[in-house]
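Inverse folding, one chain.
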């Protein structure tokens, strides 16, 4: 049986508290449970005060056979940020997506071999898990993207050249697959269409319910944002993004990414978001799956600072 743990983002003390509350204990340098395993949904770096400790805890559990972890978009950004060209120059350009990395990098000494080793370990992590009755992915499940993801690994690791292609060729099949699994679906507003959210801001893109058919929905109904509300205007068909409706009879899928500090965490009977927005709420969430066919609120467990 499995305990699916949300985005940790460097809060090692909270993670240890959650593991202990769920009956895990530390032996031989790794937390373990006599009959269960932990699954981390990605985004365990950046933001928090104990990033280095967090990586060590999760990696020791994965390598000790006491847990699993999938890649999140924050880990992907870390890997891509450190890629070099043949001349040894960084291939990335300044971007807001890389800003949060500096807190992680600053926990390691300049040129740290330990950090290089952690980056290589991250490249060995899967982009998804399909365990039969349950599935785990950071942001969005799509069968086509999953099949493409399987082809990215060589001897159990994603090569640096693959990440270079993901970064440089955003329209490639590899890039679309990886970002779909780790960032989900965003509705990108065209230049000539502006709408105002409840914060008085006109967002150029926002996260949407990838598991639904959005046709006929309003911006508010389609949105899966946690920081603002969109207006109740019907979305023009011309700007609707491609989504990936998730069947009612499909296996339970667990996701992170969406910062559901105020809930809901159980989205449908077979979709659960375990990201409790740890940075803002100072709480960490997990779902304790024990073989049930439909998700239940009773199996959610959280800890706070």
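Residues assigned per position:
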């Amino acid at each position: 049986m499995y305990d699916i743990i949300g985005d940790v983002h460097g809060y090692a003390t909270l993670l240890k508290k959650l593991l202990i509350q769920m009956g895990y204990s530390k032996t031989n340098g790794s937390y373990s449970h006599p009959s269960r395993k932990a699954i981390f949904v990605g985004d365990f770096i950046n933001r928090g005060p104990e990033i280095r400790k967090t990586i060590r805890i999760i990696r020791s559990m994965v390598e000790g056979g006491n847990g699993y972890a999938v890649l999140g978009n924050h880990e992907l950004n870390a890997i891509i940020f450190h890629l070099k060209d043949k001349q040894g120059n960084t291939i990335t350009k300044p971007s807001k997506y890389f800003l949060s990395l500096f807190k992680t990098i600053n926990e390691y000494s300049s040129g740290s071999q330990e950090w290089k080793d952690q980056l290589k370990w991250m490249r060995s992590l899967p982009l998804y898990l399909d365990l039969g009755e349950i599935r785990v992915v950071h942001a969005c499940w799509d069968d086509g993207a999953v099949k493409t993801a399987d082809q990215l690994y060589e001897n159990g690791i994603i090569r640096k050249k693959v990440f270079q292609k993901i970064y440089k060729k955003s329209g490639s099949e590899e890039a679309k697959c990886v970002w779909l699994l780790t960032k989900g679906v965003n509705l990108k507003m065209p230049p000539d269409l502006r709408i105002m959210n409840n914060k008085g801001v006109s967002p150029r893109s926002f996260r949407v319910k990838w598991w639904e058919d959005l046709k006929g929905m309003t911006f508010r109904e389609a949105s899966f944002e946690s920081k603002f509300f969109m207006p109740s205007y019907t979305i023009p068909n011309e700007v609707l993004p491609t989504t990936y409706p998730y069947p009612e009879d499909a296996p339970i899928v667990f996701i992170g990414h969406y910062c559901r500090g105020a809930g809901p965490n159980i989205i449908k009977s077979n979709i659960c978001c375990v990201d409790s927005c740890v940075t803002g709420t100072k709480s960490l969430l997990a779902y304790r799956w024990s073989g049930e066919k439909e998700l239940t609120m009773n199996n959610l467990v959280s800890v706070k600072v």
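The two ends are 27 Å apart (CA to CA). DSSP finds ten helices and 16 strands in the chain.
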